[in-house]
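Task: sequence in, structure out. Protein: AP complex subunit sigma.
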Amino acid sequence: MIVYRRYASLFFIVGVNSSFVYCRQNIGDNLLGIYEFIHCAVEALDEYFENVCEIDVMFNVEKVHIVFDEMLSNGYICEINKKNILCPLELGE
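Result:
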């Protein structure tokens, strides 16, 4: 299943395994969790880049990867706190 959200000119697309979606009785709760994950990622990127746009993503792919690496572990959401997500980027500067 594909879940996506649009923020200005950016599209964030997440591929979700069908076993994740159907593992609980209420499918909407799982999809809502994915929407919240996308929103949290955009908020973190927005805070770091100060109003993120496609140019920021294109020229700073490694920093975007660091954000998603901090948020995900083995395909599961493990961190949603913006301060914890952005900590490695701030230490690297």
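The chain has one domain: 2-91.
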